[in-house]
Amino acid sequence: MINGKRIAVAMPAYNAEKTLEVTVNELPELVDIRILVDDSSSDRTVELARGLGLLVYQHDRNYGYGRNQQTCYREALAAGADVVIMLHPDYQYTPLLLTAMASMVAYDVYDVVLGSRIIGGTALMGGMPLYKYISNRALTAFENLFLRVKLSEYHTGYRAFSRKVLCELPLLENSDDFVFDNQMLAQCVYFGFRIGEVSCPTKYFKEASSINFRRSVKYGFGVLATTLQFALQRAGIIQLSRFSDKGHKLETELTSYYASKSEDGRPV
Fold it and tell me: Residue 209 — pLDDT band, cuts 50, 70, 90?
């Protein structure tokens, strides 16, 4: 807990058996709620997570990274979290920064805090492939131009959110795929939430999850589309539910979701 706010870590997992334990072991004690959502892994991720004392929720099939995050945030909100940190359990991002990121949200400095791999200038030293670094910089420049903000990157998987952000964004209008991340940040900008960044070292290694070149290209085109949709919506040329107050939100599901809970807090 920080400043009277309950802190949750939500980990979207898929075949994270080899790196999960080292990630969990570095979580600071201030974390009140530790959640892992498994997207139908084929390894021992679920068994290991339960052994580590995590709250585990398992998808009945592989729905995709975006859907996994939706479940992560819904479960964190249902558990009473005030600040939710999305942390990949592949140990690519250090959990040791979690206190700083959560504090910036808990003390109402920012609504959203990103762990940036770019600010410190060590992304390539950490093993980021050159083509990913170049595409990261190019896409970020494009987004900064059209979203009219200045972030060092939009593509990190290490993020902290206030409860207000997760309740008010129409997250259920977003993709089930990797572009969910980018759509969510575009929504944060569109609805005027304050975004901060901290420098975060990154580690690329064999066991760390990373999308391949083909899916990276698909993600890149998704980012371009999201950015142009944002600009057209702001100009009043199109109307998308993703950028509408009337879009489908997690908050609208929570009342009925609470009613479906069993006594131990798990879905019936």
Answer: low
> Quick check: is 240 in a domain?
yes
Is 266 part of a structural domain of the chain?
no
Model confidence pLDDT, tens digit, residues 183-192: 999 999 999 9
CA distances 204 to 94, 124, 127, 159, 226, Å, are 12, 9, 5, 18, 27
Q: 15: domain CATH number?
A: 3.90.550.10
Range of the domain at 224: 7-259
Structural domain tally of the chain? 1
Is-contact 205 122, C-beta < 8 A?
no
C-alpha 147/C-alpha 80 separation (Å) is 32
pLDDT digits (tens, 9 = 90+) for 94-124: 999 999 999 999 999 999 999 999 998 878 8
Is 268 within a domain? no
Report the percentage of the chain scoring pLDDT > 70.
92
Which alpha helices (DSSP H) does the chain contain, by range? 17-25, 45-51, 65-78, 98-106, 130-147, 163-168, 180-190, 213-234, 251-259
Residue 267 domain-assigned?
A: no
Tell me, yes or no, if the pTM score tops 0.85: yes
